[in-house]
């Protein structure tokens, strides 16, 4: 059913339809509406999951960790400082190979206190061993949650689905909400081979000496890298059942563009509009200026190296737009692109939108024209 619905409510209805057994979360802006809606569904008798109230985000993460270990499908959500408070458990969940699905309504981190959107929160845990995906709009975000359970439970890897706080969580727009029966065709019941059971005792997260720890971490790394194959396979099945396309990356614009702008999340919509105006102006005036392409990264972990290389092999200039920064270096997505492409392209890291600063079409156009002349590797664009 297509609904005109707030993003947070759309996510809550999608999670309910995925039939988790246990949900636990702690309210934090701008994530609160998601778990508030789920709690109301439980209180109103619309859902049969266990909703466990927690005294902190650390506790909420610990609760879903324990529930997942018993073989139950679980869910939690957070933002900003809440995710930072979860960090110890975030690493444990990945290390124990538990298929937890977590929504991060991306928000700036303190200090100073800021409740608006950027992506600095989730980038603090990018090395924890979770798959990390970013949605451009609420339809894609909801679809990624359904996919997240399917991939996580196949590979025993946790997934963070990211959406921009306020920009998506609080916007009201049309979203196709899938019902339980249709989702069940794609997502079977969770039935892990190993789980905590008093009748068959197991140890999760045991001490690993130097003789074993190295190999365990390498296995986790290898499985995160290999998960891309499973993601692509399940994305094809998703389209067959739901009729909507999901991809690990998407390209928009002129296929022969020599300047490509790269980004993640809702800013892609603004970038597409700016690209259309630039390309239309070039056509109208018959200028010989380079055309523009937009590369959207959906999967940040695993990072789709080969797919990126194939799509932008003709481009000369790569402008990477980040709403996060590794202080003292550059934008974090830019670092990934530099790793993939090396010195073959001109890559410039553009940092925009920190702390919820508006990113306008004019700023995107400024980036497009700036990369052709700048000699800097890092550029902050504030207006």
Q: What would your notes on this structure say?
A:
This protein has 383 residues and is an alpha/beta fold. The protein is 42% helix and 19% strand. The chain contains twelve helices and 15 strands. The chain has a seven-stranded mixed sheet with strand order 3-2-4-5-7-6-12, sandwiched between helices. The chain is globular and about 75 Å long. The mean pLDDT is 96.
In brief:
With 383 residues, the protein is of the alpha/beta class. Helix content is 42%, strand content 19%. The protein has helices at residues 7-17, 32-43, 57-69, 80-95, 120-123, 138-155, 180-186, 210-242, 267-285, 305-311, 332-341, 361-370; strands at residues 2-6, 22-25, 50-53, 74-78, 101-106, 131-134, 159-164, 172-176, 249-253, 259-263, 292-297, 299-301, 317-322, 346-351, 378-380.
Topology:
Layout: E1 2-6, H1 7-17, E2 22-25, H2 32-43, E3 50-53, H3 57-69, E4 74-78, H4 80-95, E5 101-106, H5 120-123, E6 131-134, H6 138-155, E7 159-164, E8 172-176, H7 180-186, H8 210-242, E9 249-253, E10 259-263, H9 267-285, E11 292-297, E12 299-301, H10 305-311, E13 317-322, H11 332-341, E14 346-351, H12 361-370, E15 378-380
Parallel strand pairs: 2-3, 2-4, 4-5, 5-7, 6-7, 10-11, 10-13, 13-14, 14-15
Antiparallel strand pairs: 1-8, 6-12, 9-11
């Amino acid at each position: 059913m297509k609904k005109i619905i707030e993003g947070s409510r759309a996510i809550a209805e999608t999670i309910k339809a995925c039939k988790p057994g246990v949900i636990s979360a702690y309210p934090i802006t701008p994530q609160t509406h998601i778990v508030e809606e789920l709690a109301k569904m439980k209180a109103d008798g619309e859902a049969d999951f266990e909703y466990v109230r927690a005294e902190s985000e650390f506790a909420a993460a610990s609760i879903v960790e324990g529930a997942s270990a018993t073989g139950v499908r679980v869910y939690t959500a957070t933002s900003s400082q809440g995710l930072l408070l979860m960090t110890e458990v975030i690493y444990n969940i990945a290390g124990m190979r538990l298929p937890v699905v977590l929504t991060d309504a991306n928000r700036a981190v303190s200090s100073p206190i800021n409740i608006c959107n950027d992506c600095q929160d989730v980038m603090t845990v990018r090395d924890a061993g979770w798959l990390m995906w970013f949605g451009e709009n609420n339809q894609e975000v909801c679809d990624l949650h359904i996919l997240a359970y399917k991939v996580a439970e196949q590979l025993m890897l946790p997934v963070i689905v990211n959406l921009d706080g306020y920009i998506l969580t609080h916007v009201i727009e049309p979203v196709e909400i899938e019902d339980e029966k249709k989702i069940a065709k794609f997502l079977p019941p969770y039935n892990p081979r190993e789980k905590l059971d008093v009748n068959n005792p197991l140890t999760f997260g045991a001490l690993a000496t130097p003789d074993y720890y190295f190999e365990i971490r390498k296995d986790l790394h290898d499985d995160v890298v290999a998960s891309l194959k499973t993601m692509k396979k399940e994305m094809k099945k998703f389209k067959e059942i739901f009729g909507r396309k999901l991809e690990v990356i998407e390209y928009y614009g002129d296929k022969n563009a020599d300047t490509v702008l790269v980004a993640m999340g809702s800013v892609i919509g603004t970038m597409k509009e700016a690209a259309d105006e630039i390309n239309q102006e070039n056509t109208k005036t018959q200028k010989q200026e380079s055309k523009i392409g937009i590369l959207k990264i959906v999967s940040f972990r695993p990072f789709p190296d080969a797919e990126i290389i194939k799509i932008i092999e003709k481009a000369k200039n790569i402008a990477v737009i980040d709403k996060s920064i590794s202080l003292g270096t550059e934008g974090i997505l830019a670092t990934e692109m530099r790793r993939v492409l090396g010195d073959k392209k001109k890559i410039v890291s553009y940092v925009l939108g920190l702390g919820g600063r508006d990113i306008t079409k004019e700023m995107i156009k400024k980036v497009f024209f700036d990369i052709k002349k700048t000699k800097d590797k890092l550029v902050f664009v504030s207006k």
